[in-house]
Amino acid sequence: MRQRRKALILQPIKWILLLGVVGSGSVYGLSAAGFIEWKPEHQLESLMFWKTTSNHLTDGVALAAGVDKESAKPSVKPTPQAGGTATATPTADVISTPASTATSAPTSTPAPTPASTSASLAGDKSATSGLQLISQAQSIVPVSANEKAWLEKAGLIKLDPGKLFSYQAWLTEVSKAKMPEKKDEELSHMAGLLYEAAMRAGLHVGERYPHQDNPTYAAAGFDVDFQPEKQDLTFYNSLGVPITVGVIYNGESPVVTFNGKPKADWKAPKITVSKEVFAPENMVLTDFTLTGQGDVKRSEGQSGLLVKVFADEKNDGKNELIYKDFYAPHPIVIAKAPTPEDLK
Asked: Low complexity bias: where (predicted)?
């Protein structure tokens, strides 16, 4: 009885083992023939229906969307190129998404340097940003709207290293475009500001003509009597680095600045100015039209001025006289009536 019951129990087990052997052989044969793909390392995990991973969730989303697993990979982020447009690295079967374009900051292209002068017009008014203030010259008077327009152009000058700047050549170049009216006094005033800034920066001055009388709009010792095509202003950029001219305002008075990136050990020379005043003398003249009348003052006269400009090049306390300007005094003219003896 026991033997029969044991035989009944073992009989199904034999059939199960036989089917397992036959099935394994069939699967192996089909896999070898390339009809099916057998991945035993995933079979056990696939039977664990209670265990879900992020990969399974991704696979499910991808299959539901009608794409394969490779297409469900995240797309490559765009890499900005030099031209400003972002391009993605090509990959196979990547889901197409709207491409984003990265726009680079606009850059200005400087205008070509005129052959006749070392000054060039910068394309951006913010060209002085990030540069060191080398020197400056402030006007002692406010300026007109006409001169402001000229100063706006002067604030775009770039002085090339090792080159000679010509004020006349610069005016000729900028005048090719539509410009305000040229007024001799305003052009001379602007030239004086450039000259003072150049002196305080330690640049080498070539051509400069002072006025016979110090004008009221110019700082004594730094005036320039510019006369188109006759008397120029020139100076040489000896610092070895580009200098960008800037113009700012203190109220209505302009301040011309020289800006650049000189060597770390560079120091601007200390400029000092001494002034000696000469009182005007009286000049008495006989005026026969004043017969029977009193004396008449014909001219108030004007004091004279001797200006000496010194430079301490090495900042060691040793001042060197670099030039002198002398503005001669104008006498006080007094007209007097003739005396009886004068009438004889």
From this structure: 78-120
pLDDT digits (tens, 9 = 90+) for 287-315: 888 887 888 888 899 999 999 999 999 89
What structural domains and CATH numbers belong to the chain? 1-59 (no CATH), 113-268 (no CATH), 269-344 (2.20.230.10)
Distance (Å) of CA 68 to CA 2, 61, 72: 58, 10, 7
Q: How far apart are CA 199 and CA 217, in angstroms?
A: 18
**Amino acid occupying residue 93:** D
